[in-house]
């Protein structure tokens, strides 16, 4: 092996280094213009909800609280209106039963248009795992099939009523509803007693 071979190798090395630095510059040049359209991409993601908020002006601000910046664990995309409400049909504006309507099990008992508790709660459970729910409140388990999640939670208002609820208000919440329930059962049995011959 002579000096010539070494010179040749050195030359090749320099050429390779030059080439990569040129490529580096080229990459920088292409990177700069692509940085500009980025806001468009953000706009594109937002438009998933815009289709809804064009009509539903009250929801214009989108979600508050954690759902506003949450990632859907199923597709790793931001949480959208349709993740919870599903897809509207062509007759949506006429009020047909298409999108999911969440209700309060006590103040709005399932009417003819109401969705069953299991159907409502399964929307929430498509993202929420039972274990963290149990850790946040043991009573989540006992109510899973008995109450809609939205009997206690409200997701659209800026202030979620349950998050950070003081201990006393929490107890009052349980007692109020359970005594109402008691009265309802009592009223029912008294009515049945009266009906009995
Ligand atoms: C598309 C997925 C998804 C669906 C559907 C969903 N959630 Fe969530 N939710 C999340 C994520 C992600 C968070 C952030 C915290 C976490 O990971 O638990 C969150 C947070 C919350 C919080 C804390 C709120 C806050 O602002 O601090 C509550 C309460 C909650 N969800 C209740 C519900 C209820 C009730 C339903 C059904 C009506 C529901 N969620 C449906 C994904 C979802
Ligand atoms: C063209 C206008 C329009 C668009 C777009 C639209 N909606 Fe609606 N939506 C309506 C009207 C009108 C009603 C009221 C029907 C009724 O009173 O029962 C309604 C009802 C609803 C309800 C039930 C409200 C309630 O009081 O129970 C929900 C939830 C809902 N829409 C969600 C959505 C979501 C989510 C989207 C986007 C995927 C969407 N809508 C897109 C017009 C629209
Ligand atoms: C009986 C009322 C009640 C029902 C029904 C209920 N929750 Fe809760 N939830 C609470 C309370 C109280 C907390 C504790 C809030 C705190 O201490 O900050 C809580 C906490 C949570 C949290 C954690 C919020 C945080 O701090 O990040 C999530 C998520 C949640 N609930 C989701 C659900 C889902 C999903 C359902 C339906 C399957 C449901 N909840 C049903 C009362 C309820
Ligand atoms: C994480 C689940 C979730 C997401 C995401 C979500 N909603 Fe809702 N939506 C609910 C629940 C639960 C209710 C029942 C009222 C409440 O809890 O605030 C509701 C109620 C509604 C109603 C009826 C309003 C009323 O006052 O009864 C409309 C309309 C609606 N949502 C539209 C939307 C639109 C538009 C978006 C997207 C910007 C959206 N929702 C995103 C869960 C969700
Ligand atoms: C909105 C009404 C409501 C609220 C609020 C509520 N509960 Fe309940 N709870 C129910 C209903 C309905 C059942 C099912 C009763 C049945 O199966 O007859 C139930 C069942 C239970 C059970 C199972 C025992 C049984 O009788 O089946 C326990 C324990 C319980 N609730 C504790 C709690 C605690 C603790 C809280 C407060 C964090 C609470 N509840 C808040 C309505 C409520």
UniProtKB/TrEMBL annotation:
Cross-referenced SUPFAM superfamilies: Multiheme cytochromes
Pfam families given in the database record: Cytochrom_c_NrfB-like
Residue ranges occupied by any Cytochrome c-type protein NrfB-like domain in the UniProt entry: 81-177
UniProt KW keywords: Oxidoreductase, Signal
Membrane-spanning segments: none
MF (Gene Ontology): nitrite reductase (cytochrome, ammonia-forming) activity
Gene3D superfamilies: Cytochrome C3 (3.90.10.10), Flavocytochrome C3, Chain A (1.10.1130.10)
Enzyme class: oxidoreductase
InterPro entries for the chain: Cyt_c_NrfB (IPR017564), Cytochrom_c_NrfB-like_dom (IPR053875), Multihaem_cyt_sf (IPR036280), Multiheme_Cytochr_ET (IPR051829)
Signal sequence interval, chain numbering: 1-26
Entry EC no(s): 1.7.2.2
PANTHER family cross-referenced by the UniProt entry: CYTOCHROME C-TYPE PROTEIN NRFB, DISSIMILATORY SULFITE REDUCTASE SIRA
The protein, known as: Cytochrome c nitrite reductase pentaheme subunit
Species: Aeromonas eucrenophila
Gene name, Swiss-Prot/TrEMBL: nrfB
